[in-house]
C-alpha cells in the first residue's frame, strides 16, 4: 500500500535495523463479511502505520506480530531524526561563529 508500482518492482532489500517514519494508530473497521460479528456488533480493531508521503496520509494495516519490530523501527527513526537535527543546528552555530569572527578581522 505504501509502495508505488516502480518501487514494488525494485523490492526493498530488508535491512538489519530498519527505520520507519510515521505513527501507530488504531483503526476500527468492518470487514464486510455478512456473517461476521462486526456486521452489526463491535468492529474489528487493527493497528496501522499512518505515514505522510508527499503530502498524503498513507495507512498500512499491521498484523499483531508486526508491532514490536515496527515500534523499534519508529524509535530508531526518532533517534536518528533528533541526531540529524542536532547536527544541523550545530552546523548553523558554527557558521554564525565563523561569520562573526571573520567580520572582526575585516
Ligand atoms: Zn468482520
Structural notes for this entry:
This protein has a three-stranded antiparallel sheet with strand order 1-2-3, covered by helices on one side. The model has no long low-confidence stretch (mean pLDDT about 90). The chain has one domain (about 5-105). The chain is α+β, with helices and mostly antiparallel strands and about 110 residues long. The chain has helices spanning about 5-10, 65-105; strands at about 25-30, 45-55, 55-60. It contains two helices and three strands, in the order H-E-E-E-H. The chain binds zinc ion. The site of zinc ion has 6 residues, from loops.
Concise summary:
Helices cover 42% and strands 23% of the residues. The protein has two helices and three strands; from the N terminus they run αβββα. It has helices at 5-10, 67-105; strands at residues 23-29, 44-53, 56-62.
Order of helices and strands: HEEEH
Please give the order of strands in the largest beta sheet. Answer: 1-2-3
The tally of helices reads 2
Apparent shape: elongated
Average of per-residue pLDDT values? 91
List keywords for this structure.
alpha+beta; single chain; elongated; 106 residues; binds zinc ion
Task: Please render the helix and strand layout as text.
Layout: H1 5-10, E1 23-29, E2 44-53, E3 56-62, H2 67-105
Antiparallel strand pairs: 1-2, 2-3
